[in-house]
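ok so dumb question maybe but i'm new to this and my supervisor (M.) told me to 'just get the structure for Acetyl-CoA acetyltransferase' and walked off. so i did the thing. is this what she meant?? sequence i used:
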Amino acid sequence: MTPGKRKVAVVGVSLSDCGRVDDATPYALHAQAARRALADAGMDRSLVDGFASAGLGTLPPVEVAEYLGLRPTWVDSTAVGGSTWEVMAAHATDAIAAGHAEAVLLVYGSTARADIKAGRRTGNLSFGARGPLQFEVPYGHTLIAKYAMAARRHMHTYGTTLEQLASVAVQARANAALNPEAMFRTPITTDDVLSGPMIADPFTKLHCCLRSDGGAAVLLAAEEYVRDCRTAPVWILGTGEHVSHTTMSEWPDFTVSPAAVSGRLAFERAGVRPDEIDVAELYDAFTYMTLVTLEDLGFCAKGEGGQFVEKGRLTVGGELPVNTDGGGLSAQHPGMRGLFLLVEAVRQLRGEAGERQVKRTGGRLPELAVASGTGGWFCSSGTVVLGR
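this is what came out, is it supposed to look like this??
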């Protein structure tokens, strides 16, 4: 096979125990997810020569690889927040295609919820006060306030309403109701969202992602390995990545996320259009993230996200099923959730999603999916287009 020309497939995916996990360390969740993904693929650990991880250890990913008993010859520890895993998937795909690795394991695990409950940490109000961030911290600009301010700008510019933003949370919960692994499954209404306690105007509690424990793993391999794997391959068709800003003053337009660039690149490289996508898994730390990412990926025009989401399009049975597992708003959100997006996209394309399985015209399984992660306060984005 000519270097740089090999096709790359996702051959194994898994979640660790998720939700409320009080009796495991983050390392244990990494290991549990990794073992399950290898078992899913039917691939022996000895074949894994590439490893990608971020967010744990003094020397990530060295410590985690050691814990898992791996000695990789290709590594990635890119850390760009929630989009980390889509960016890592892009890097791993390029490495495998070029012949620098044969099988790359992406793993994440966090006990974000359990640590707070046990008093081992506090909630992150900001990312710190060093470097460029020092110029914003004195004004009390918390992490959630940055998302809230961006949402308000979209509302001011395009007339997006609170009810439209709330409908994103309502539809995410409707999808979670079909997912036995989701942390919250009880249906909610628009009034439930609007009447909740205010967190950062305009976001009430249900506009915001939950905090959970959990881990995930995704195994990518060169096409030569596919025939020996237990599962049907899901191919990586195209990827894109982009970084935008870290200080709000350097963000040119609060209504445009970096997915506008990463998505365009991913679709161009995959040779597909947004209107061909069957299912979308999008980072949703807040309802506004879903809405603006839909616009920037090209599923609707800029400023039309409010009207697009309010008609039930995002549910499993909708026109464009989004966050079919319930997303970070209802299923699980243990921190950098981007890897969970890839797991759910693969499960949907394989037809393994159970009651929440998306079916297209004639009862056929979805053929194309997109996973788009966002990091920081719209600071970075990674987008991956996948197909059967």
